[in-house]
Design brief:
Number of helices: 12
Oligomer: single chain
Shape: globular
Number of domains: 1
Distance between the termini: 10 Å
Strand order of the largest sheet: 9-10-11
CATH topology: Glycosyltransferase
Strand content: 5-15%
Radius of gyration: 20 Å
CATH class: Mainly Alpha
Largest sheet: 3 strands, antiparallel
Order of helices and strands: EEHEEHHHHEEEEEHHEEHHHHEEH
CATH architecture: Alpha/alpha barrel
Helix content: 40-55%
Bound molecules: glycine
Length: 411
């Protein structure tokens, strides 16, 4: 249905009209186009295989190699900005930055291939139909599948994880973020007809649903498995405040991940998990009014203690994490289409509120500031003392994706 004029009571009594919201989306897309072009200019004087990630204390861009987990987000942002503005320069650059990542199709050293390839090549294939991109994605899915173990019924995230409590190392850690990588496997299953990709994705999703999501639908960040019998050895955190806390971006990955898994499977257990996790997030007493969460829902709360080695012990400021908000906004636009009328409306309104918060002056950077990233105030990892209150390339990516999903819902 295409309402000509409708009102959304999203933030308090704010009323938004469809026409006004289209202007809101296009002005944000226009701003993104400008920032991305400034960023492209900055990249010209750097190593051609350096991928934008964040900024340093002087406000200058920090980059990573393609083998970190985030190289797909810059090309992905270029694709979304191109999709919204139809600017041919953005398209050329999106192609160029995507194609740099071709070597990743054979990469097997960690689980993040879904992020790395589906945000870049996935969008490239969706928008161009270029069959070469499809083949690269399928090879990437084969590489990701090598990390699946039928005993743990999970894809191994990292090759090792060291607890914050001491020196203990675990060799089969699975993090909630890993749900996001399954989209690449579902894609490969559909494209090739090879059901093993789908089997791996569904097995991993079921295992995460049982072991990573708590009965109240909050989430553990890291679950470590025994490869001899598939039993859980430990439930801990890497980037959250405490083992029993809920790391905001982890919860965001869960909401997004289980929504996508429901789209691909139509299995009502996954929808229940997605809505349970979304309700936990949105109804939480610790979620600020603008719906941009603190970096962890339980920072400095009674009953939550960081491990002795964690830098979270030293950080007293309760930083927000804009990246978590952007991921949740994008997820909620999709989930609103699956959750029935009443909940669907509630999720959509929450997504719109988040987008308006992020596009306001508290979070959206002025042009040519913030290392030319779009959004300010994200958190990479406080326990590791890394990327605290900075822009992050993936916050921008999910903001642009959420804008695109909002736009598509109004067209
Ligand atoms: N996947 C890593 C993170 O969310 O920081």
């Amino acid at each position: 249905m295409k309402p000509l004029l409708y009102f959304i009571l999203a933030a308090g009594l704010t009323a938004y009209t469809a026409g006004g919201e289209k202007d809101f989306i296009s002005s944000n897309a226009g701003f993104a186009r400008q920032q991305l072009k400034h960023m492209l200019k900055d990249t010209e004087s750097r190593d051609s295989l350096a991928f934008p990630r964040t900024i340093n204390k002087e406000g200058k861009m920090i980059t990573t190699s393609m083998y970190d987990w985030t190289p797909g987000f810059f090309p992905g942002s270029l694709w979304y900005a191109y999709e919204q503005t139809k600017d041919p320069v953005l398209q050329q650059e999106a192609v160029k930055w995507t194609e740099k990542l071709e070597p990743l199709k054979d990469f097997t050293q960690h689980h993040d291939l879904g992020f790395m390839m589906y945000c870049s090549y996935g969008n490239a294939y969706r928008l161009t139909g270029n069959k070469a991109y499809r083949d690269i994605l399928i090879q990437g899915a084969r590489s990701l599948s090598t990390r699946f173990n039928p005993v743990t019924k999970s894809i191994k995230s990292w090759n090792a994880f060291k607890t914050w409590h001491g020196q203990q190392l675990y060799y089969y850690p699975v993090i909630i973020d890993n749900l996001m990588n399954l989209e690449l496997l579902f894609f490969a299953a559909k494209e090739t007809g090879d059901t093993s990709f789908r089997h791996i994705a569904v097995s991993h999703a079921e295992t995460a649903m049982y072991n990573q999501v708590r009965p109240d639908y909050s989430s553990y960040h890291v679950v470590c498995y025994d490869t001899t019998n598939g039993k859980v050895l430990a439930r801990e955190t890497a980037q959250g405040y405490a083992d029993n806390s809920t790391w905001s971006r982890g919860q965001a990955w869960g909401i997004y991940g289980f929504t996508m898994i429901y789209r691909e499977t139509h299995d009502p257990r996954f929808l229940k998990t997605a809505t349970g996790m979304a309700d936990w997030f949105l109804d939480n007493k610790n979620l600020p009014e603008d719906k941009v969460p603190y970096w962890d829902f339980n920072v400095q709360e009674k009953g939550y203690t960081p491990g002795v080695r964690s830098n979270a012990n030293k950080v007293k400021t309760k930083y927000r994490d804009v990246s978590a908000a952007a991921i949740v906004a994008s997820a909620l636009f999709e989930l609103s289409g699956y959750a029935g009328k009443e909940k669907g409306t509630q999720y959509r309104q929450a997504a719109i509120t988040i987008l308006h918060s992020l596009a306001g002056s508290a979070y959206r950077a002025p042009e040519e500031k913030n290392g030319n990233f779009i959004l300010m105030h994200s958190v990479g990892s406080i326990p590791h003392n890394a990327e605290i209150d900075v822009p992050l390339v993936y916050a921008d990516y999910y903001f642009l994706e959420a804008l695109q999903r909002y736009k598509a819902s109004l067209d």
